[in-house]
Amino acid sequence: MSLIPKQWVVDDISEAALFDINSGDPVAYFERLNKMTFTIDAKQQRVYGGTSKYAFHLTEQDAESSVQLENAVLDLNQLVAATGATITTGSTVIPKVEKLLVATGGTFTFSKGASLVAGTDRLVIATKGLTNSGMQLTRVTSAPTALQYSITSSGVVTLGDATLAGKDIRAFYDYTAIGGTAASVKTDTKNKPYKFVAYGKAFDDETNESFECTIIIYKSQMLGSFSIDQQRKSATANSLELAVLDANRSDKKVIDILTN
């Protein structure tokens, strides 16, 4: 056996995908990968005996190999693959919060008032420095007085306190989105095993040549947690950890690292 001379620097991990093991169909796509950590477990147990303080043998232990992904683009299909969540589209109730300026006459209108879900509105005085700052207003059907308001079905609000004109109100309410999307994690959803493929480019620092590098895990399943990290003025960071499973293939393959 001769040594394989292939050595490289990872230039661009680029993208990865999860595939349904049975149909071969792609079910989740990962682009703009920040990091992919691939761990191949090869634990051994030391065996001692006799008078020597050194082990005379190493016995193989159960392997727990895994791959960790971190990417900067959120695709709801990643959540589905990780947790078994369900995605629905259509009429969807969405919570909304906004700070609104009270007009002369003590009125203002919700930006999503046309789709307001009746009875979900809650109003709080947002302007600081007032005697009633931070107080929640009470909804009445008509003729509101101080610390009260009335609202129409289309989200037009009338306050009972004329002194709030020119001040800010923070509104909390639900509205119905006709073409909304909901990704729901439920108590009875379960994650499934998938085939994992990472597509990337590598660079041979000795020959100054770039080439494709592909990693295949023939069977993997969600391990640990799926994290969505959103920070101000930064790309969304999503992280996912997958356990490497025995694919039970006739060729005994679990992992392939391919270069071209």
Itemize the secondary structure elements and their pairings.
Elements: E1 9-20, E2 26-31, E3 33-39, E4 44-47, E5 57-60, E6 66-71, H1 76-83, E7 86-101, E8 107-109, E9 122-125, E10 138-139, E11 148-151, E12 156-159, E13 168-184, E14 194-204, E15 209-229, E16 237-244, E17 255-259
Parallel strand pairs: 10-11
Antiparallel strand pairs: 1-2, 1-14, 3-6, 4-5, 6-16, 7-13, 8-12, 9-13, 11-12, 14-15, 15-16, 15-17
Explain what this protein looks like in three dimensions.
The protein has 260 residues and is mainly β. It is built from 1 helix and 17 strands. The protein has one helix spanning 76-83; strands at residues 9-20, 26-31, 33-39, 44-47, 57-60, 66-71, 86-101, 107-109, 122-125, 138-139, 148-151, 156-159, 168-184, 194-204, 209-229, 237-244, 255-259. The strands form 4 sheets. Strands 1, 2, 3, 6, 14, 15, 16 and 17 form an 8-stranded antiparallel sheet that branches.
Keywords:
260 residues, mainly beta, 8-stranded antiparallel beta sheet, 4-stranded mixed beta sheet, 1 helix, 17 strands, 3% helix, elongated
